[in-house]
Amino acid sequence: MYISLRDRPKTGAPAPPRTKHKVSSVVVTLGVVSLMTDISSEAVAAILPLYVTAALGLTTIAYGFIDGLMQGASALVRIAGGWAADRGDHPKWVAVAGYGLSMVTRAGLLIASGFAAITALVAIDRVGKGIRTAPRDAMITTASDPAHLGRSFGVHRTLDTIGAALGPLLAFVVLWAIPDGYTTVFVLSLGCAVIGFALLALLVPDLRPRRQAAASAPADGSKPAGRPFSWRSVAEPKLRRLLVVAGVLGLLTIGDGFIYLALQSRDGFATKWFPLLYVGTNLVYLALAIPVGRLADRVGRARVLVLGHLSLLAAYLCAGTASGMAGLTIATLVLLGVFYAATDGVLAALAGQLADTSVRAAAIGTAQTVVAVTRMVASAAFGVLWYGLGRSPAMLLVAALLAVAVPVCFLALRGLDTARPVPGGVGA
Asked: In what residue span(s) does the Major facilitator superfamily (MFS) profile domain sit (predicted)?
């Protein structure tokens, strides 16, 4: 493990060298926190599309609204969470607030009844996610070797994805044993959320990026000792280009729930198998998060981010076809896993790479906000498209638009891959 920032000397003396191929204990601990929290959130998310459209009997327009909230409600506070972390130089405690808010909503699900109450709790939970995400990713960036930042995010996302796979699997087991066991899922979800919150509050050190930058600055003043927070640093040209591209691609990224509903509608498999679709995607993501993170470090994070959307395009084509072959269903889940491995942690790593230390959390939060808002719009719009055009035409229309956007966005991000290549190649 790397020596954590908490253990480094607070003088101007150089920090102990990091072991080249290791990952910080801070990153691993944050990964375990995310693992437990994702078991909690994904167990609920895995039953939500089916619950809304089958148990409650609502239309795809209604689900599009809820899915839009899940995608975009966090956007309302992601920038604020990043700003608070940078401004106070205490990203940990901002993250604690976000995880705590989501934990409280798990308890609320046990007593809520009706569409309005559940929708409100989903929105509040996503706000908690928005508060915590940028400070957490800023801590990962601070604790990591810059040359291996993609790998660090890959390790974190791997642990995160283990939780994302176990959550739907947990929901599947409960619904298999108890066909109407939604309350049982909510109870187990609450327990996992409490464990994740406790791990963060008790075990993760209070990393302070600006203080660390000042402590490591040479005494002769040859290196600036951490600039004060300024929104102008977030609006630098390279970051603006990244935000525009992330927004364009986000507008063409519909929620996973729609893709899974398309598969279920086409293939007609039993509803109890529905949560396993999430498991399939997350297992692929789990297998690829670290290798793709290494690839991004090697060949360029901007390239991997944009080209990863080709996998999403292929998933749309597989889900939109009229054929009900099992092979196409499996291929869809694999392609979605590849897409998330190439985009989720890579976006945060790229934003953290381009941003100054003083605005790192705000820059990551801004990029994630752009993606969340545009995906919220995409989900709501796709619900209307499905309702008006039907499953297959709507899916193929979005695929065609994405096919046009990918090469344009690839050209727009040329020059952003300025990080030095990792010696030894992808598998180093």
From this structure: 26-417
